[in-house]
Amino acid sequence: MILNELWSLRSEALRASAGDWARPILDLLFPPRCFGCSTRGAWLCADCVPQLPHVEHPICQICGYPTAGTKVCAFCYKTRPKIHGIRAPYYFEGALRDAIHRFKYKHAKYLAEPLAHLLLNYLQASPIDADIVVPVPLHQTRLAERGYNQSELLAIELGKALNLPVVARCVDRIRPTDSQMSLPAQRRIANVRGAFYSVDKTIAGKKVLLIDDVCTTGATLESCTVALQRVGVSSIWGLCIARARFYLR
Q: Out of 3.40.50.2020, 3.30.1340.30, 3.40.50.620, 2.30.30.100, which CATH number does the structure's domain 52-243 have?
C-alpha cells in the first residue's frame, strides 16, 4: 500500500513538471489511475463516468439548477440574469470533485483533456450554439501564484474538439476577488460584481460559450456576462463541469 502511494505521488510530480511532449511516455511508465475505482488506464474510466453524480432534470432554463418542474426557478425569475443560460452536467462531489481539485490546485494540467471530454460528451447530447469559446479569466495575481488558468486549459481542449476559436484575452479580471467557494452564497454576487471588464470589439455579434470549472450560484459567470455584453456579443452561455448540489440563494 505504501509503495503504491509513493509510486502515485512520484508519477503525479513528474506529470506536473513535464511538458506535453512527455505525457505519452509518462502514461506508459505510470499508467493513469481512475479517480473513481483506481483502475489503471484512464483518469476517469468508462465504468465510472456513467456513475458520476449527474444534475437531474427538470432544470431551470436559465441557471440550470434542478427545479420542481417550472421552466424558470424563483431566483432567476426574481433577479432576471443577463446570461442566456448556464449548464453544468455534474455535481461537484466524489471522484469528480477530487479530479477538479487536483486539476485546479495541484498543477495537474494533464487533467484538462479528460475533464474537457466530459463537457464534450454533454454538448454532443445537448448542443449549445456558439462562435467562440471564452474562458473565465483569473486575476494576474492569482495567475502568477497558480501558474495557469484552469478554465483556459479546459477552453483550449474544448475548442479543439469543437473546432471553435478560443478567445482567451477578450475579458479581463480587473480586481482580485476572494475565492467564491470560501464565501456564503449571499456574498458571492457582491464579491465578483464589477470584477470583469472588456473592450474587445472584435467579438461584437459573436455567440459566446463561456467556460469555467465549477459553478455555485453563477455569480462569476453573470459578472463576466455583463462585461462581455458591453462590447456587443449576441449571446452568452456558461458551461461548467460541475456545480454545487446545495446552496442558499
A: 3.40.50.2020
